[in-house]
Amino acid sequence: MIALRLWWLLLRRQTDQRLTIMLALIAFGVATGALLTVLGGLAAFIGRSEHGGNGLYVLLAQIATVILIIPVITLGGSAARLSISRRDDRLAALRLAGATSSQVGAIAVADAAGQALAGAMLGVVLYFAALPGVAMINFEGRPFAWSELLVTPAVLALTIAGVVLLATVSAVLTLARIAISPLGVARRSSPKRVSAIRIGVALVVLLAWAPATKLLGSDAGLIVGMIVFGLCFAVLNLIGPFVLGLIGRLSVARANTVPKLLAARRLTDDPRAAWRPVAGVTLATFVAGVLSIGPAIAASQPTGADPESAHLPADLMTGSLVTLVIAALLAAVSVGVNQAARVYDLRDQYQMLHLIGTDVPVLKQARVRETALPLVASVAIAALISLIMVAPFGILLIGQAPGGIATFVGGIAVSLGLVLVAVQLSQPLVDRVLASGRMPGDE
Amino acid sequence: MILSARNLVMTYGAGDAAAHALAGVNLDVDPGSLAIMGPSGSGKSTLLHCLAGIQRPTGGSVRLRGMELASMSDKTRTALRRRDFGFVFQAGQLVAELPANENVALPLMLDGMAHRAAIGRADHYLEVVGLAGLEGRRPGELSGGQAQRVAIARALVAEPVVVFADEPTGALDQNTGQEIMQVLVGATSRAGAALVVVTHDPGIARHCKRTVLMRDGHIVAEYHAPVTAEPAVMA
């Protein structure tokens, strides 16, 4: 009880935690809002199919939901890590005040869950705010009615509970990796190597994709196909950090400036941490790559004879773009949240580097480079894997439908642009950190 | 004389709430070692920050070889800190991702030296501070004392005219602290640089040839020999 009271006291007094809390709330909110919007869209297509609409739209909406649910979960996970990993002082103070390790852990998890709940509520507001915009989109020749896009109260409650559960599980996993003592929070001290076994696993999954696409015609096959698709998506996160580590090791030898050296060393030191800020962009690129075949499939559909399918080509294009916009939005929030949090994490280092004579533009250039290097690599990996994904459907088809290429290239350009904007938006935070008058190591 | 401070004033806030961290300090920094001692809140760290061009004083002047620091642009003062000054702080001063020799090489690379050449010189300075063989270790793989030695090597690698050390042993046990002070004073002296150490610990200050004592933003005493006992003003 004393520990709980102290936690509340520290929560109210620690003003420097406001940025972290705000970022976590935004991330949880956007993740929840996007999830509800996607589920609302799925419910609308199911509703239409029950009233004589084309059943194929339900299948396509399910695929879009599967595509988008993973970035939503990723963003939710990032938010949970953010809400728990920057509380070192508070967690240590609780231990110093006599709380046991498990009490502190429980309080920290409850803290993350509380933020997830508040963020999810914000997400519900965002969902309702987005409804008028979403309702203007035409599918099957007519816009949605608001009532079509509304999720049931049960889905709403389950979504909120799911976000809180996701935050709780992520918080428990994060806590398992740290040791909270009264003197501080201890983390790893040596570089993390990423095993080459990842490449082997990735190859096996990617090789399984082509046979899995043959099963897509049947109901059971659809489930298998979706599982393998999800696994291919996970492959991105397996290969990415390994390739980044490799690029980092190659770049160190050629690094002749401090920004290049810092960027290369960050990749070799913890490739997973370097991957995380660009993971959202990678997902958007992957989605753009997979959807690049949409217009090609649409163009190959017979038109005119079946009135049910008359709108299908245009709707496939619209559906691809809507999915891409939501994926890009999730990526933008993910990058923005990670970039802002990173300035807070590295404030000691920025102050120290400035103190020993690093010009502010050089410091900012280092930030851009340490994001750009993994970004370019991750976009290339995502593009390659997405092309492997669409290959079984006939990769040459893409060339016949310029709309697909435009979606793909446009998706990559928008994603890269978003990252640069996110980095630039967080640059004033560096100025603020340097102007704070705080010395490296100051509490 | 390398650095000279005249009538240094640093005031935080205004009116009744004004706090005078420095209230008209005069100090010359000559070759050799100087300890700035004083109780917490006496203004010793603020004085170091003003001398090193980290903070602009609200009044008075700091001159390095005749050049006024306060009139320099931020860019010029940053270059000055890179080329003419070295820094050792209590904690949080090494880049976690870089091995020891690259941490030491940073000021050289920031000034345009190629990686290979900078590493060569960094390795030499790591040897000077007794860390030969540990060049490839990262900060997380070093003890507190070893990390401070890396910081000392980095402070010296650009061959500065002054090394500033703010409570350099504050995070170390007493024995390691004494060792670090011996390394700091010895290496700085051999490099021909002046050393300014801020400390509240007489056991650390006794390593320096000259000591000034501060209280309430004023220099209240000065000794031109190592202080061997805690001065009464510290009580």
Overview of the structural elements:
The complex is a heterodimer of chains A (443) and B (235). Chain A is mainly alpha-helical and 443 residues long. Chain A contains 17 helices and four strands. In chain A, strands 1-2 form a two-stranded antiparallel sheet. In chain A, strand 3 (179-181) and strand 4 form a beta hairpin. In chain A, helix 3 (56-85) runs antiparallel to helix 5 (101-135), helix 13 (312-345) runs parallel beside helix 17 (402-435) and helix 15 packs antiparallel against helix 17. In chain B, strand 4 and strand 5 form a beta hairpin. Chain B contains seven helices and ten strands. By secondary structure, chain B is of the alpha/beta class. In chain B, the strands form two sheets. In chain B, strands 6-7-8-3-9-10 form a six-stranded mixed beta sheet, sandwiched between helices. Chain B is globular and about 55 Å long. Chain A binds chain B through residues 188-191, 255-258, 261-262, 265-266, 268-270, 348-349, 352-360, 362, 437, 439-442, and chain B through 45, 54-55, 74-75, 78-83, 85-87, 89-98, 102, 106-107, 109-111, 114-115, 138, 140-141, 154, 166, 171.
Largest sheet descriptor of chain A: 2 strands, antiparallel
Query: Roughly what fraction of the amino acids of chain B lie in strands?
Result: 25-35%
Q: Which regions of chain A have little confidence, pLDDT < 50, spanning 5+ residues?
A: none
- One letter per element, helices H and strands E, the order of chain A comes to HHHHHEEHHEEHHHHHHHHHH
Overall geometry of chain B: globular
Mean pLDDT across all amino acids of chain A: 78
Question: Helical amount among residues of chain A, as a percent range?
Answer: over 70%
Strand order of the largest sheet of chain B: 6-7-8-3-9-10
The SS-based structural class of chain B is alpha/beta
Distance between the termini of chain B: 31 Å
Strand content of chain A: under 5%
What is the assembly state of the chains in this entry?
A: heterodimer
Ends apart, CA distance between termini of chain A? 27 Å
- Output the radius of gyration of chain B: 18 Å
Tell me which protein chains meet in the greatest interface and how many residues each side has. Answer: A-B, 32 and 38 residues
Count of separate DSSP helical elements of chain A:
17
Q: What is the number of beta strands of chain B?
A: 10
Structural class of chain A: mainly alpha
Helix and strand run of chain B: EEEHEEHEHHHEHEHEE
